[in-house]
Amino acid sequence: MCSKLKPLQIACDLRELPYQKNTTMKSPTLILYLTVWSISLAAAYYIGSHVENAPQDTDQAVKVPSDSKIPKLTLASAVEEVTTYKKNALTAYLSGDVSLLEDAFLEIPALSSEATRELLVQAFDLPASDPNRSRLIRDLLRQLAEREPVAALELASQMKSLRDSQRARVAVLEVWGLKDPAAAIAWANNALVDEPSRARNSQLMAIYRGYAANNPAAAFQQALAINDNDRLKNQLLDQVIKVQIESGGLQAAKIAVDLLADPEMQRSLRRELVDEWAEFDPKAAAAYVATLGENADPSIKSALVSEWAESDPAAAAAWLSNLDVDDPTIARASSSIIREWTRYDLAASADWLNSLPASPELDRAVITYTFRAAEEDPETAMSWASSIEDDRRRTWMMERVASTWKEQDIETFKSYLDKSGLSTEQREKLENSQSRGNGYWGRRRD
To answer: Residues 101, 68: one domain?
Structure first.
């Protein structure tokens, strides 16, 4: 019978499968298989019982009455049954089962507004010591914002942590900007009037990020229409350009920027455009910068080099070296290259730095190199420190290297002092230099 009746094929296949022990199979999966098998078996039984009374003419197809009560059970309904059987992960987590954390987050996008509100009450009751509390509340508020953004904002304001509250509001506003940017912007123009400028701007940028994700061209024009705050306008346009490029709209973003009539705004947005572009295709971004000619000012070139150096410092250095020797970008951007290159190759980065013409403007790059070299080769670092043009910077940097050198090898440090020809005052400063701690080197800004 299994070989003749196709409707029974699934059941037959399942019965004929050899039993194999699988100790790694999870219970929901096992239940799914059993459910599908049971459904197939029931269907096979029902059809088989009707076939027994059907005519035996092989040319006549087996007909099932149109009003038959065959259960219309599908694989989807089987999965739903298993899902229902499985314990609700969000409820379980809120009840203390931390093992279901990631499953809990996966459930949030399917929640109704009513269910989201109920779970938010429980989430707010979680102890502050729960490291996932703020993230869970933020994601639930984001889900509530799909239909009730104002209510979500009000709940976000009830969070005791100002930082968490601000992050939640930003998340809600980004959703609102995506769903209904006109309403979100209208709300912001009224509700954020008395907010400090920094908080107000960050929330407006969230709205425009959501807006740009859905309609970047409209978001660009909306931001461009702001007249009373050029700083805010540039920030919003930067956000739109960034989101547009990340969404694959590079060429549209480039055209929009190239068509701007305001030279200063165009320069600023070109810098943002090149910075984002260079993150994934620095060579193409460099070719674009070359087409700008004199309109490619040092800030645009520096943005290119800074981003390029993170992925390929040697290539960025080669591009920078091909600029005119008097191009101010060389001194400005060389420290970005050194900062990244010295992470991987002190010798190659030193050779390139040596190839650049010495100047006070290059001091920043030399200081950056010295910072990196001091931990691994303090003697070489001291040589670089002593080459710094500016007297104040040179003295300060030599003291920093001396403090590290003394900790690593006091004998070679003393030998250096004996051969250095430094004045008594200079020698005393280096001998008395104090270490600022391991984190100091990374945090110090020139």
So the answer is: no
